[in-house]
Amino acid sequence: MSERSGREPSDAGSSDTGSSRAGSSGSGPSDARSSEAGAPGRDSSGVKSSGTGTSGRRSPRGESSGRESAAPATQSESASASASVSEPATEGLPEPVSRGSAEPAVRPDTAVIIPAKDEGERIGATVAAALALPGVDLVVVVDDGSIDQTGRVARAAGARVVRHSRNRGKAAAMESGAEAVRLLDGERSRHLLFLDADLGETAGAAAALIEPVRAGRADMTIAIFANRVKLAGHGFVVKLSQDGIKRACGWEATQPLNGQRCLTRAAFEAAQPLAHGFGVETGLTIDLVRQGFRVAEVEVDMAHRATGTDWRAQLHRAKQFRDVARALALREPAVAEGLARVRERLSR
Ligand SMILES: O=c1ccn([C@@H]2O[C@H](COP(=O)(O)OP(=O)(O)O)[C@@H](O)[C@H]2O)c(=O)[nH]1
Ligand SMILES: O=C(O)[C@@H](COP(=O)(O)O)O[C@H]1O[C@H](CO)[C@@H](O)[C@H](O)[C@H]1O
């Protein structure tokens, strides 16, 4: 593996993923739906997508897209995108890893990034399942200022670990993880699969999120959890995000806050800067759909820890509400234009 040849992220632990990935627990989507940005619908393959997705046209980032009005890609954008999606360059990439006679070999092309704050109990199982995903040869856990053993357990399970010395929120942890992958990538450009730390062994079902991106059919996939434990939230934050996304870009998100997402590197870069904290998913969806990237939802057999009913759970929902509202406000055209003017003035 070539990861160590690049500049290492600070506090990166060792990982030897090559030997620990025998077998796969990935499972296919049991349902998938289709729609066009602003005009929800279904395509024949059943994938719910923000673009037509099968036409092979180029998106603003030089990737295959269903949007006619896509702006021409710049040369460098085009080059980096074509290396990561439809027709992946093979030169210099690792050989496909065979996972036994039952499965075809998959060329390693995806890094898993797990933001984690005080997840010592579940992170070990989540990392182990992530390392077993087909085509995954790197799992980066970003220990976001945990006060438990999250970092130690993650490293022991085979992850590279990046640590924030203080808690900086989910979006910042995702950014640090993506930057660590970029430094380790060298000439490659891995797809980025973001997973929450509390999935445990159900992280193995994330293979279905990678597949449409690997095949060049989507620029970002979002999980729909088939089974959810609904407790005391009454879906307030989900609705805030859902309605906001619909207003901002016309896309109807089924589980707008779902953090299990696979993106091409080009799509991730196009969404910078990420919305703060728990606003990150809402911002990502709006920013990518608005730019013509194809976003697809995939139903997966995954489950995370239910948010619960105690005061901590309600505080969590309050933080989610604040961050989603902020992400939406910053994407209102009038606010966005004002911010752009301020940025321009500051850069003079
Ligand atoms: O400040 C934070 C808060 C959360 N997380 C991580 O972000 C993911 C999603 O958080 P959580 O499970 O609390 O939210 P949910 O999406 O389940 O409501 C988990 O892996 C957390 O450990 C983080 O890295 N920093
Ligand atoms: O399951 C859901 O529909 C809700 C549950 O939240 P509430 O109990 O309504 O606060 O949202 C949670 O589940 C999402 C999975 O789609 C998570 O990713 C969200 O962050 C979480 O709030």
UniProtKB/TrEMBL annotation:
<keyword id="KW-0808">Transferase</keyword>
<dbReference type="InterPro" id="IPR029044">
    <property type="entry name" value="Nucleotide-diphossugar_trans"/>
</dbReference>
<dbReference type="InterPro" id="IPR001173">
    <property type="entry name" value="Glyco_trans_2-like"/>
</dbReference>
<feature type="compositionally biased region" description="Low complexity">
    <location>
        <begin position="67"/>
        <end position="91"/>
    </location>
</feature>
<feature type="compositionally biased region" description="Low complexity">
    <location>
        <begin position="11"/>
        <end position="32"/>
    </location>
</feature>
<dbReference type="Pfam" id="PF00535">
    <property type="entry name" value="Glycos_transf_2"/>
</dbReference>
<feature type="compositionally biased region" description="Basic and acidic residues">
    <location>
        <begin position="1"/>
        <end position="10"/>
    </location>
</feature>
<comment type="similarity">
    <text>Belongs to the glycosyltransferase 2 family.</text>
</comment>
<protein>
    <recommendedName>
        <fullName>Glucosyl-3-phosphoglycerate synthase</fullName>
        <ecNumber>2.4.1.266</ecNumber>
    </recommendedName>
</protein>
<feature type="compositionally biased region" description="Low complexity">
    <location>
        <begin position="44"/>
        <end position="57"/>
    </location>
</feature>
<dbReference type="GO" id="GO:0016757">
    <property type="term" value="F:glycosyltransferase activity"/>
</dbReference>
<feature type="region of interest" description="Disordered">
    <location>
        <begin position="1"/>
        <end position="106"/>
    </location>
</feature>
<feature type="domain" description="Glycosyltransferase 2-like">
    <location>
        <begin position="112"/>
        <end position="225"/>
    </location>
</feature>
<keyword id="KW-0328">Glycosyltransferase</keyword>
<keyword id="KW-0460">Magnesium</keyword>
<dbReference type="InterPro" id="IPR050256">
    <property type="entry name" value="Glycosyltransferase_2"/>
</dbReference>
